[in-house]
Structure formats: structure tokens, C-alpha cells
Design goal:
The complex is a heterodimer.
Chain A lengths: L3 H29 L8 H5 L1 H30 L19 H8 L10 H35 L2 H12 L6 H12 L4 H9 L13 H24 L3 H9 L4 H12 L1 H16 L3 H6 L8 H9 L4 H25 L4 H4 L2
Chain B lengths: L1 H28 L20 H8 L1 H34 L2 H16 L2 H19 L7 H25 L4 H9 L4 H30 L2 H6 L6 H10 L5 H34 L1
The chains are: A mainly alpha, B mainly alpha.
Chain lengths: 340, 274
């Protein structure tokens, strides 16, 4: 069994080794293919600029992206220990945090951890639903912006779309609380109009949460969708129309296939961010623990079990990636298409 | 006739869509002017500006605001240069690994913010533990690191778009006249990128200021405006939250106007060029 200190050294070495391997492989391939050597990185940029580029990209990719993720995964395989025993003889790699996620206990595997597993599944399914709903909601707007709006109209629409996005997530969730609370606007109006005799519990039924989440990520769907629809040739649509295709035929069999990658990237973005949403579930979530992120949050700030929290975060990340990659596979796309 | 009906339906849909976007924000603003001590729109008990006064006296909020501004400024200082470097490297990197590099830099945009916050905290905790110093293990620094990982990617996207319009001939002309690499970078590339740098800075600051998911983990025991706000909204709200919303919406409108103005100037600049 390797110790935690060795594990850390391996983690830090890993990206460097990977980088050297990729670099070596590229140089090797270039030699085999007998291509002329490229001008070196520092030849091309000069030393001062070259060093700035290197350091900035290294700080970013290693210090902010790759190493933090690797360390999070590593911590998820370690037990929770009191501070003075961290790194000590009891700090060995273990699967107990994952066991807890599945079975609700670090040792026994007798019964399932129903609360957490159910919330996990609900979160993934709901996030899928939210992306689909947002796609339908935004398609007409994006289509209008891409194919029908004039330059000035487009500018105005863009500005109006971006503006609400700058109001932060907490406040956007708060807005839905003002609307949906038991003495909120909607209940006051419905009671006043005599449609209902007692207030409806929108928050307890998760209606508020769903509305808030759909609202929060609408804009992230509009822009990729608009970019994709914008690249569809107007002549193609014209041709289909001239050949007598009904309008829904044109959308379903001409425009959507052509805009496939943009649709995929919009859905990916909304799905990933909706699964990871924290503000709306904290503010609008009812008493039943439905969303998974508040559970992860509690691992850290209620239970103070960081390794377990890391395991939960990693499970969430992997599940997201699996869903996204599977969805893209269905559309015959790969992850780089969706990241555009 | 048919076309007119379709057009009417499209306009109606667009109006409904924007009503859906803006109504919740408008509704949220109303309780700021209502005397009722619970944030509600109706019944409207009476007009007041008291909640703004309360807001100005709320020390936790003021403290959080100061931290948020400070973090926003640092994030701009980190992510604009980093994003620029990323865009330049993306352009130069061997075409066989370009998509891998692109994926690695865009990944933080796709990864849920909660996970970015968690991983940042864990990484720096482990690092400072093994280094034996706690100097860097503070909320402001961690938040800057966590937020910059994805805000740099936003900046990179803006820079990449601008770089695609860069005319290499300018660079070559400078080299022929004997300019060094550094001179070309400083006096040709940077001035060309200036409008993009300006909008990247605005974008970076606003993204940092409104961020919650990453911040709530990375800030540790410290506080920013959004985390103070989240606390207040969670444990029974007061209309001061609405008052803050009014201020933020006003600032947003102002910022959008500034961005629009920068964009206009940029497009005019391009027209003058061609």
C-alpha cells in the first residue's frame, strides 16, 4: 500500500510526466513523418514573452485546473481523521467514503443509502428535464435572432438577454421566493381572486425550485443555440421551402441536424450547471432533500467530513460526464464539439 | 395572410419570453419600497425608503461588499493576463494537441462551480499542510484562485475571437523593420487586443462579483457579499435584500450600457480600419 506522502508526490509528478510524454510523442511523429522542424516556442515569442506565456498557462492548467481536481480525487480515498493524525499511520487509502455513499455506512453493505441515492438520481433526471425544457423554450428566440432579426434588433435583443444574467443567482432565487412563498405574490393573487381557499405550498412541492432552476439557466441555452442557428445557411432553408416542405419538416430535418453541435453544447452547459446548482436548491428547496448539491455542501459544513464530501463531489462529476458523453454519442458528436 | 399570423405569433412569443425574463426581477424589487417587514409585493402597506437606510447600516453586508470588490479586482488582474496567454498559446500550439488543450482550458466552464470550489480548497489545504505554512490558506486568495480557473476561460474565449481577426502581415512588417519579439508583443499585439481586454476585464469583474457556488466553498470562514446575502435569504428574509436587488439591477443596467458603448466603439474602429 502506498503512503499518502508518496501519493501526493505521484499526483504532482503526473501532469509533468504526461506533458513530457505528449511533447516527446509529437517530436517523434514529426521526425518519422520527416516534417521540417517547427520554430521553437522561445524562438517564436522571445524569452520575456515566452516565459510569461509559459508561466501563465502553467499556473492556470496545473495550479487551478488539473492539480486541484487530482487532489480532490485523492482525498476522497482517504478516511476522516482528527487533525493531528492526518498523514499519520492511520491515513491510508480506503473506499469507505464511496461505501458510505452507496450503503449509508462506512463498514457494512447491508442496506442502501436510500436518501442520498434517490436525491442523486432525482438531480440527474431533473437536470436532463431542465435542459430539454430550456431547449424548447429558447429555440424560437434563438431562431428569430439568427434568421429573422435585423442588425439593430439583434443588438437590442442580445443586450436584453445578457442584462438579467448579471443579477446574481441568490437574488434570482430570492425573486422566486417572493413569488412562490406561502404569503407570496402568487398565493395572495390566487386567494384574492378566490381560486383557492388556502395557500398552495409551492416550495414544499418543489414547483418553486424547478421554476427557479429553469429560469437560472435559460440564458446559457440561448447563446450556443443562437450561434449554431446563425451558421445555418438561409439558402438551405429557402431550398427546403421551395421544394414544398412544411415548416415543422424544415425545422426537424433541415435546421436541427445542421445546428446539432450548438444544440449539444447548449444542453451540455445547462445540464452540467443545473446538476451543480447550489443557490436555488438552498434558497428554494423544500424540507425534503431533493437536490444533491446541498447534501455535498452539508458533508463539508454540517458533518465536517471533507474526504466524504470530496467523494460525493467526485461521484457527481463522473456522473455528469457519463451522461454528457453518452448524450453526445447518441448525437454522434464528441466532447470537443460540445465545448466550442 | 399566413405570414402575418406567423409574424404576430413570433412577436407575441418574444414579448412573453422577455416578460418571463424581467418580471421576476421587477417583482423582487417592489418589496424594497413596501413598509411591510416581510418582503412582499401585495398588500402594499405604504411607500418607504427605510430599507435602503437599513441596508447602508448593515455591517455584514458592507464587509462582504468590500471583500467582493477586492476579490473582483484581483480576479481581473489574474484572469485577463492568463486568458490572454491561453489564447496566444492556443493559436501557436501543435494542431495535433490543440483540441486537447482547448478542452483542458474550457473544462472549468463545464465543471460545476461547487466542484471547482471544493477542489481548490482541498488542493491548497494539502499544499499548505505539507509546506508547513498557512500563509496562502485564506479565503480571499482561495476564492481568487477558484474563480480565476473558469473566468480565465471566459476571457480566453473573448481573446480568441479577437485574435482570429489579427493580420499577421503587421507582425512581419515590424520584424522586417528590426523589432524584437517583445516589442512586437507590446506595441502591436496588445494595442490590437485592447478592446477585447477592456470587455474581458468588465466580464471578469462581474462574473466574480456575482459568483456564489465556487465562492461559498473557497471563501472558508470569511465572507463576500453573495455569501452574506445567501445567509440572509436562507434564514427568513427582510426587505433589505430587495433594496440590495434594486441597487444591483441599477448597477447592471449601467454596466450593460458601458459594455454596449465599448462594443459600439470597437465596431466603429473596425469599420474605420477597412
Amino acid at each position: 500500500m502506498i503512503s499518502v506522502a508518496t501519493g501526493h508526490r505521484l499526483l504532482v509528478a503526473f501532469p509533468f510526466v504526461l506533458g513530457v510524454l505528449i511533447w516527446g510523442w509529437l517530436a517523434f511523429e514529426r521526425r518519422v513523418a520527416k516534417l521540417p522542424p517547427r520554430p521553437g516556442f522561445f524562438r517564436r515569442n522571445g524569452w520575456p514573452v515566452g516565459i510569461y506565456l509559459m508561466l501563465a498557462v502553467a499556473l492556470w492548467l496545473l495550479g487551478m485546473v488539473v492539480l486541484p481536481q487530482l487532489f480532490m480525487v485523492e482525498l476522497s480515498f482517504r478516511p476522516k481523521l482528527p487533525f493531528n493524525q492526518i498523514g499519520g499511520p492511520r491515513d491510508v487509502y480506503t473506499l469507505e467514503n464511496y461505501r458510505y455513499f452507496l450503503f449509508g455506512s462506512t463498514t457494512s453493505t447491508e442496506s442502501w443509502n436510500a436518501v442520498h441515492l434517490r436525491s442523486f438520481a432525482t438531480t440527474i433526471m431533473s437536470a436532463l428535464f431542465i435542459s430539454g425544457f430550456n431547449l424548447l423554450l429558447c429555440y424560437p428566440i434563438a431562431f428569430y435572432m439568427a434568421q429573422a432579426a435585423t442588425g439593430a434588433q439583434l443588438r437590442l435583443l442580445m443586450l436584453m438577454l445578457i442584462a438579467p444574467y448579471w443579477v446574481n443567482e441568490i437574488l434570482r432565487a430570492f425573486a422566486f421566493r417572493v413569488i412562490f412563498a406561502s404569503s407570496g405574490l402568487l398565493n395572495t393573487m390566487l386567494l384574492g381572486a378566490g381560486f383557492i381557499v388556502e395557500p398552495i405550498d409551492f416550495i414544499g412541492r418543489n414547483i418553486a425550485l424547478f421554476s427557479g432552476l429553469i429560469y437560472a439557466y435559460t440564458l446559457l441555452m440561448v447563446f450556443p443555440l443562437y450561434n449554431a442557428l446563425d451558421s445555418v445557411e438561409a439558402a438551405q432553408i429557402e431550398a427546403a421551402r421551395d421544394l414544398g416542405a412544411p415548416w415543422w419538416h424544415i425545422h426537424l430535418f433541415v435546421i436541427v441536424p445542421a445546428a446539432k453541435s450548438g444544440i449539444a453544447s447548449g444542453c451540455t452547459l445547462v445540464f452540467m450547471l443545473a446538476t451543480g446548482a447550489l443557490a436555488a436548491p438552498l434558497v428554494l428547496g423544500g424540507p425534503s432533500a431533493m437536490w444533491f448539491t446541498p447534501i455535498v455542501y452539508d458533508r463539508f459544513y454540517q458533518v465536517f467530513n471533507w474526504p466524504q464530501g470530496a467523494a460525493y463531489a467526485f461521484v457527481l462529476l463522473v456522473a455528469c460526464l457519463i451522461v454528457v458523453v453518452a448524450g453526445l454519442r447518441l448525437l454522434r458528436l464528441n466532447l470537443t464539439d460540445a465545448a466550442r | 395572410m399566413m405570414a402575418r399570423i406567423t409574424r404576430g405569433m413570433v412577436s407575441a412569443y418574444i414579448m412573453m419570453f422577455f416578460a418571463y425574463l424581467f418580471l421576476p426581477l421587477a417583482i423582487m424589487a417592489i418589496p424594497a419600497f413596501n413598509t411591510s417587514s416581510y418582503p412582499r409585493v401585495w398588500p402594499f402597506d405604504g411607500a418607504t425608503l427605510d430599507w435602503f437606510v437599513r441596508l447602508a447600516a448593515d455591517e455584514a453586508m458592507i464587509y462582504g461588499l468590500r471583500n467582493s470588490l477586492w476579490i473582483g479586482a484581483l480576479v481581473v488582474l489574474v484572469s485577463v493576463p492568463v486568458g490572454l496567454a491561453g489564447a496566444v498559446v492556443l493559436q501557436q500550439i501543435d494542431s495535433r494537441v490543440r483540441s486537447l488543450f482547448h478542452l483542458a482550458t474550457i473544462a472549468p466552464v463545464l465543471v460545476p462551480g461547487v466542484i471547482i470550489g471544493i477542489s481548490t480548497v482541498i488542493f491548497w489545504r494539502e499544499l499548505t499542510l505539507s509546506a508547513g505554512t498557512r500563509a496562502l490558506y485564506n479565503g480571499v486568495f482561495l476564492t481568487v484562485m477558484g474563480q480565476s480557473s473558469f473566468i480565465s476561460a471566459y476571457c480566453m474565449l473573448l481573446f480568441t475571437a479577437r485574435l482570429q481577426r489579427f493580420d499577421r502581415a503587421q507582425e512581419e512588417a515590424a520584424f522586417d523593420l528590426g523589432a524584437s519579439n517583445t516589442q512586437v508583443f507590446l506595441s502591436i499585439l496588445l494595442p490590437f487586443m485592447r478592446p477585447a481586454i477592456l470587455s474581458a476585464a468588465v466580464l471578469a469583474f462581474l462574473s466574480s462579483f456575482e459568483n456564489y457556488n465556487t465562492t461559498t466553498f473557497a471563501i472558508l470562514a470569511d465572507r463576500t457579499l453573495t455569501t452574506v446575502l445567501a445567509g440572509q435569504v436562507r434564514q427568513g428574509t427582510t426587505p433589505t435584500v430587495s433594496a440590495l436587488a434594486v441597487i444591483i439591477i441599477a448597477a447592471t443596467v449601467l454596466c450593460s450600457a458601458v459594455l454596449e458603448w465599448i462594443n459600439r466603439r470597437r465596431t466603429r474602429g473596425i469599420k474605420a480600419h477597412t
